[in-house]
């Protein structure tokens, strides 16, 4: 995640907090060791831009639910490792390895594939689609 996107997310969160009259959340930034352990559990490297996001903000709502290992109060307490396991255990035909880091409004998983592309598996269509080539592109789309 380039500094521009980090700065954009920081501004977005500050603007949101100002609209609701103060900090709406407690952020839980992640350490490199925690993210390394998550990668081991998932069996894949997390995209660098997502690692930077989690290192700066932790899991939080930033125009899109972005789950991490610990999340702000606006999200469920479920980690991205747990989300991934839940979807795989429930039989969703997601690629392996993958990392489910968000869920759309219809309950569909949004995930990173093994090369870091952002995909969505639509249960109604029974197929995956590419949402963005990477996490930075996704967040730029969400924040604009």
Automatic annotation (TrEMBL):
SUPFAM superfamilies cross-referenced by the UniProt entry: SMI1/KNR4-like
Domain Knr4/Smi1-like: 29-141
Top-level taxon in the UniProt lineage: Bacteria
InterPro entries xrefs: Knr4/Smi1-like_dom (IPR018958), Knr4/Smi1-like_sf (IPR037883)
Pfam assignment, any one: SMI1_KNR4
Name assigned to this protein: Knr4/Smi1-like domain-containing protein
